[in-house]
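[#protein-structures] MJ: dropping Glutamate receptor here for a structure pass
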Amino acid sequence: MGWAIHLLFACFFGALQKAMVSAHDAAVPVNVGVILDISSSAGKKSWTSISMAVDDFYATHGNCTTRVVLHLRNSKNDVVGAAAAAVDLLKNFQVQAIIGPETSTEASFVINLGNQSQVGAIAAIVRYFGWREVVPVYEDSEYGVGVIPFLVDALQAVDSGVPYRSVIPSAAADEEMDKELYKLMTMQTRVFIVHMLPALGARFFQRAKNLGMMSGGYVWITTDGITDVLEELDHILRITEAMQGVIAVRPLVERSEDVVNFTARFRSRFRQENPTIKAADPSVFQLWAYDTTWATTMAVENLGPKRSSFRRPQSGDHSTDLDVIGSSESGPALLKAILNTRFKGLAGDFRLLGGQLQSSAYEIVNVIGNSARVIEFWTPKLGISKQLDTAVGAGLNSIIWPGISAAVPKGWEIPTGGKKLRIGVPVKKGFNQFVNVGWEPSTNRTVVTGYCIDIFKAVMEALPYAVTYEFFPFRPSANSYDHLIYQVYLKNFDAVVGDTTITAERTLYVDFTMPYTESGVSMVVPVKEDPRKMWVFLKPLTPNLWLVSLAFFVFMGFTVLVIEHSNAEFGRQPSERLGKVFYFVFSVLVFSQTESLRSNFSRIAMVVWMFVVLILTSSYTASLTSRLTVQQLQPTAADLKQLLSTGAYIGYQDGSFAAEILKRMGFKSSKLRHFSTSDQYAEALLQGGAKGGVDAIFDEIPYLKLFLSEHCNGFTMLSWTYKTDGFGFVFQKGSPLVPDVSRAVLNVTEGDKMVAIQNKWFRDTICPSQNNAVTSASLNLYQFSGLFLITGVVSTLAALIFLFLHSRKSTIRGPSIRNILHGPQNPNQAHP
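AK: finished. structure tokens for Glutamate receptor:
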């Protein structure tokens, strides 16, 4: 609302009037119209404020060249009356400006931009408490409708939706209000923003109280239309009694010295002008009226007594008063002067937006008792704060809510009337451990059980409030779970409980809770014995390790041959020496060597080599033992790429989204086969794709684990995984239940109750075929590279040092190839 000070200039049907008289006069009178409902107390108070502004301006500004002359007209609280008053002022007095009317409803010729800054304060309150949905309740008038687009935008900016807009006719009877209030009672949303004029708002809250809607759990927020005159209305209508716990915003007016002085003078003058009415303090409306009148008088004076020709229409039949209204050429100049006027007024910084006074700071108040208690402030710069000039943390938790409760309402409730949540559940032919829909003959009713159902019940029990619900089986879900989930989007169900997977596509039209199972899609394939088992003795070592080991045996043989070239125990003939040396080196494997080493250098090299051989043989023995004592089973396929390249047949579960994933990966529909039960999975895998079965099963991990627990032998699940988000509960888009249910899901899944539910529905079976399908990895070269490096360095250094020392004692450069191969010529030749 606000003081709707509408300045009507030549734009009023193209007829802005500016009455200028002779510039030779000492003070040129300038006619200004005032349209108020002088039959009301608020109208009388506004007239006192406006007339005081003119008197005060000229009392403090001497030698003025202009003099504003006020012409008061009564709108009679009627749109037609306001329009007739405006025409009369323009036609008969050629007024330069019109101040008023008090409400934008009466100013039907002027576009009301509304006091839009207050929506920021309201949105800040909604964001502070985290309410996800809000219902505006507003008057069906220009005043009521004008602010709604800005309010909706502000709410959307803080992630709060508007599921419904409640419109109350300006002249609504009590029965009409009750009908609309009953409709609001049937909704889940319990946060309402009321934007009405005071008279209608007072009746609305009284009806809401009579229907029990001012009780605990409800949230009512009002705009300044009601709050600005709350105390004044309470004297007349006892409105605060019906508004206990309401939160409201209203423009902030600081109690400055000027305001205190004005209030005292206002009460005295109002008592003189209206002796039969009890004097009251001016409201923010009267302060705005004072400031606006001051601004208009200032603009008139700043523009000066300029002469302007007044032009009458030259054509037309002049059959109505509107036809004879003329126009002034200098009107736009005055309009610009008023709109550009800035000063510190009684109500704060003065500025006009769209011809209406705006406030930048607001009070957030709580209606308790007979008045509104200020709890916080709001400014566009600082948001909600305890102080105007400093960002001090908000304390909105001190609010007393409807029902005289200190507990913050969660913003929604299960609708009155005992309506239960309609929960859709899938009807499955297999994997009934997750969801099973049965019939109980003794009670003649449907019974829904299963792992997912038990988790949902545990989650509902974990909520801090009671939620009633009823399960409804949905049989078409066997074809596709998308059909079931779409029923939530169509509002046929409030939610879906079952083994429903969270996917990006589904989140476009429903909301999911946090997942309660592990995520991912994988494959199960048959296993078979390794056909290369006859060569299993080669498997403990990789080919590279075999080759390097053999190379080091040869290298160590030549090292010993060089150092022990004079050792007669290795024979005299080349073939004999080579054979004995390499036999000696290889016999280290079983530590059965008979020849003795005479050189310390060869002994050092062989000690290191024996250590390497000891580790290598021990590791080989352990790996070979493992492979020989454990059944060797291998999966028939390694991953999807292999299956795709071989044209394999893939199985999936009825109703699953897995088929779409496989198609996106390149599998043709003709290669896909669907099944319902785990037994059908096993039968199809044993048959194989070539015989009418499948080569692999593609499904979500929880189903595959259940399948493997029931069919322990002959199958294995691959480590390859397609990422998904697991199972979640489905709710309507924007449902206020989702955050609370998600928190409850986390509490349940992290507690002991989750373990009990899993043990109830799934047995913990260990399958040998699954554990042994992937054998231990072969020993590789990298694992022994350090040992080989040490052996190579030590052996090479030993041979080089021996050759160096031998060359110093001999006339030759060292042992020749002939000496190495033929050995010593003298059997008794000493070895260095």
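MJ: nice. The first strand starts at residue 28 and ends at 36.
AK: one more thing. The chain has 26 helices and 30 strands.
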